[in-house]
Amino acid sequence: MHFTSEHDVADGVITREFTLDGIPGILWTPSDASPSAPVPLIMMGQPGGIGMRRMHPRLAARARAVAAHGFASVAVELPGAGERPPLPGAEQARSDLVRALSAGEAPSAQTVDRLVLPLVEKAVPEWQGALDVVLDLPEIGERVGFSGGVIAIGVRLAAVEPRIRAAGLFAGSYVPRTIMEEARRVTIPLHVLLQWDDEGNDRQMALDLFDAFGSAEKTLHANMGGHTGVPAYAGEDAGRFFVRHLGSPLE
């Protein structure tokens, strides 16, 4: 990991941009985190294809919110996003998805697979590599959560990465059939956020995914409104979920 910048935010959160094997990332750490008082870590997922530059205001706001609970957070640029090269076939699959939705049709399972699975296959090992390095920092503790999307990436990580103790997932994006099956192997506590009127996404698919999860503790937090209409209290509820399952140095 090579840190490329560091600066203090006014509310006491240290922001450090880095690259890891050529992949950009950002680490946010509460200013009082230290080797003698390491803090839990939240892996912050983000939508595919947008890029951290455009997402930065929302990511930074989420980072400040989790820092208020005493957590560090990290985000990495997804494959095919930002200045990273596009994934082969992704543009055609995205066009096929948009064409189906514009015609009022459900996209085919093959289209969803072509769009999402290559992203999952590449992103999950990259996330695990980033986790290896970030957890080696002395101010970061061993308690880890995953928050956000792409939900298929979160499901795969929750199924295969034992260091993740709890996950807060943003429902709405399309989910391949194989990821639905993997959801049955997820047993960690889950907090799933669903916007009931999320335009362009499949509500029933989100409900089927929630039903498939094998977790003994799973909560579906559904709100009226579209993709960008998430109420502030939904984020507050997610914060309390992570405090409950990861603990907090502020307790």
Global structural class: alpha/beta
Largest sheet: 9 strands, mixed
Mean pLDDT across all amino acids: 91
* Rg: 17 Å
Order of helices and strands: EEEEHEHHEHEHEHEH
Distance between the termini: 31 Å
Helix content: 25-40%
**So how many helices?**
7
Shape: globular
CATH architecture: 3-Layer(aba) Sandwich
Can you tell me the number of structural domains?
A: 1
Oligomerization state of this entry?
single chain
Strand order of the largest sheet: 1-2-3-5-4-6-7-8-9
Please report the first level of CATH classification, the CATH class.
Alpha Beta
**DSSP strand tally:** 9
The CATH topology corresponds to Rossmann fold
Can you tell me the residue ranges where pLDDT is under 50 for at least 5 consecutive residues? none
Q: Strand share of the residues?
A: 15-25%
Q: CATH homologous superfamily - what is it? A: Alpha/Beta hydrolase fold, catalytic domain
Question: What does this protein look like?
Answer:
This protein has 251 residues and is of the alpha/beta class. The protein has a single domain, classed as 3-Layer(aba) Sandwich (Rossmann fold), CATH 3.40.50.1820. The chain is built from 7 helices and 9 strands. The chain has helices at residues 52-67, 90-102, 109-134, 151-160, 177-183, 203-212, 232-246; strands at residues 2-8, 13-20, 23-30, 39-44, 72-76, 140-148, 164-170, 190-195, 218-223. A 9-stranded mixed β-sheet has the order 1-2-3-5-4-6-7-8-9, sandwiched between helices. Helix 2 crosses helix 3 and helix 3 packs across helix 4 (151-160). The longest helix is centred in the middle third of the chain and has 26 residues, at 109-134. The model has no long low-confidence stretch (mean pLDDT 91).
